[in-house]
Amino acid sequence: MKKRNVMLAPAALALAAVIVLPGCGSAVSGQAQAAGESVQLMKLGQTATAGLSGKIIPDQDIKIVSKVSGKVAAVNVQEGTKVAKGDVLVQLETTDLEEQVKQAASSLEGAQAKLGDTEAGARKQEIDGLQSTVDAAQGAYDQATAAVEQAKAALDLSTSTYNRLRNAYDSNSGVTKEDLDKGTMDYQRTQAAYAQAQAAQKAAGAQVQGASSKLQLAKVGATDNTIKALKSDVERLGAGLELANSSLSNATVTAPIDGMIVKKSISVGELAQAGVQILSLVNMDQVQVELSVADSQIAQVKTGMPVDVTVANLPGKTFKGVIAFVSPVSNANSNTFPVKVKMDNKDGQLFAGMVAEVKLNGTQDSRLEVPKSAIVKKDQKEYVFVADNNHTAHLVEVKTEEKNQSWVYVQASDKLKANDQIIVNPTDKISEGTQVKAG
């Protein structure tokens, strides 16, 4: 049996074409022969060209949220307001955010100034001042050195005098105890003076070294690590300023596209929470039809394929569309695949939620509607019993497609077509070739 190319048929056409025999409506002509199994017969209705049924959705449906939290100062739109891309929709209060921007800008300016001064190095006045400090320290060191030399000469003299007095006193050469004590005190005093002069010289030398180091650093400039650290501070504070400016900018919520506001969830004075929807914006200049296509037909549906679309609410009108998306993954709970058709709606006749019928251009295949009670399952296949004009039952294999709880679609063929009589609720007594009669 040839596979179906399309999925759904308008229920009104199918139901209008079904004629039910005893048990389902008016009886078929009572020509069933008297002999044979008593059965319930049903005449199949006329076939109808199949279509894909789906709902219209906006081509663009945007849930607008605030990127920052804050109190709402103004709401410039209402439900039904048409807006253009960039229009201000909602304004949050910005006093605190503006202050944060000022603080971040001030911190960045200070860091940039410090980096600039460090990279430029010391000025001439600073170099001259440091050089004067070095010269003064060097002069103090020279004086300290001269004092050490004088103290050394005095120490040498007092040491010689002390040694002479000590030797003379020990040999009883007329040197008194008072003379020796005086010589000893002179020696100790000059020894202490020499030590003090050496300490002063050492301190003066340290002053010279320190002043010289500062002068050298000023001439050479800051190290690479110092410059890197200062640059890092500038970058960090610059990022902080960008973040503050971004927060200030995000306090103004603008329209991302042209469209119409269809839902408003915020009012002046309320607190907008970051990430929580406050408006819904749609663009209906183009719309889509969402379809679910059975796995037996999905291979025949291609992206870019032209289609005709009709809407029950707009009788007599046919819209041109194009298959925009064919999912390679089936729906989670069925063996159907999501398909989307895109079409123009510049005149605004189509509304989201309308039910649309999509006809693939060039599709000629048709289907019949059969009650599930007529389906016989054998060896993992499905059949119906067709009663011919001689009231003989024939088993015909079919492939079914779900319609609803009680009915299925089957494809018309040379063995099963409109106006054929099928057996409803066949029993085990019915098989190929069984003679039947309407009962």
TrEMBL record:
Residues 62-277 form the Multidrug resistance protein MdtA-like barrel-sandwich hybrid domain. Residues 94-154 form a coiled coil. The keyword Signal applies. It holds the Pfam family Beta-barrel_RND_2. Residues 368-437 form the YknX-like C-terminal permuted SH3-like domain. Its main location: other. The keyword Transferase does not apply. Keywords: Coiled coil, Signal. One of its GO terms (cellular component) is cell envelope. It comes from the Bacteria. One of its GO terms (molecular function) is transmembrane transporter activity. Residues 289-363 form the CusB-like beta-barrel domain. It is found in: Cell envelope. Residues 1-34 form the signal peptide. Belongs to the membrane fusion protein (MFP) (TC 8.A.1) family. This is Efflux RND transporter periplasmic adaptor subunit. It comes from Paenibacillus cremeus. The lineage of its organism: Bacteria, Bacillati, Bacillota, Bacilli, Bacillales.
